[in-house]
Specification:
single chain, alpha/beta, Rossmann fold, Arc Repressor Mutant, subunit A, 2 domains, two-stranded antiparallel ribbon, 9 strands, elongated, Two component transcriptional regulator, LuxR family, Sig_transdc_resp-reg_receiver, transcription
Length: 212
């Protein structure tokens, strides 16, 4: 067991970040990086058929929100430790990640020494944070916006609202009644605590739930 390498998979939508992490982690003889991915669907497919000890997972991916993805990974592979690795420093996102099963949360300015310590800590069953993240979670902020939990249908409608489409147009595209679409829109406004569609879209963009 002592000679077994620790399999670490990196998931980030920026290839330059992946290459930087690979170079840093390559200096550790105990670490092996069998694969890297730039999308959420790829890592879901991979963990179903491969042993992964650690996943370094970005929050913002082209096809998924990292906090939701973490929850899916833990369902498929409970023994895999997921460490969020992101530029996002909102306390609400950090806490949501841990609630969804993450073993830790590191910011991308973390040093290689701190990264290695945190990886080893996560493998031992600890919840790990970099120094800056520890400071953030020790200072609860009233300004943090919680990440709403959306249904698949609400996510579809949110994307279409962001494109400026009316309820009637959305209803035609999704084969729904306008009344049903309006009900979903009202639910979205409540979940985001938004007063109107503009505020709804702005908040969703800030939370990286839709693209600008």
């Amino acid at each position: 067991m002592e000679n077994e390498k620790i399999n670490i998979v990196i998931v980030d939508d920026h290839p330059i970040v992946i290459e930087g992490l690979k170079m840093m982690l390559a200096s550790q003889s105990a670490f092996n990086i069998p694969e890297t991915f730039t999308s959420g669907s790829e890592i879901i497919d991979f963990v179903q058929f491969n042993k992964v000890d650690i996943i370094l997972l970005d929050i913002t991916l082209p096809d998924a929100n990292g906090t939701d993805l973490c929850r899916e990974i833990k369902k498929i592979s409970p023994d895999t430790s997921v460490i969020m690795f992101s530029n996002r420093s909102e306390r609400s996102i950090i806490m949501q990640s841990i609630q969804n099963g993450a073993s830790g949360y590191l910011l991308k300015n973390t040093s290689i020494h701190e990264l290695v310590v945190c990886i080893k800590g996560a493998l031992s069953g600890d919840i790990v944070f970099c120094h800056e993240t520890k400071q953030i979670i020790s200072r609860p902020s009233q300004n943090d916006v919680p990440i709403p939990r959306l249904t698949k249908r609400e996510k579809q409608i949110l994307q279409l609202v962001a494109k400026g489409k009316t309820s009637n147009v959305i209803a035609e595209e999704l084969f729904l009644s306008p009344l049903t679409v309006d009900t979903h829109r009202k639910n979205l406004l409540q979940k985001f605590q938004a007063k109107n569609s503009t505020e709804l879209v702005n908040q969703a963009i800030q939370l990286h739930m839709i693209e600008e």
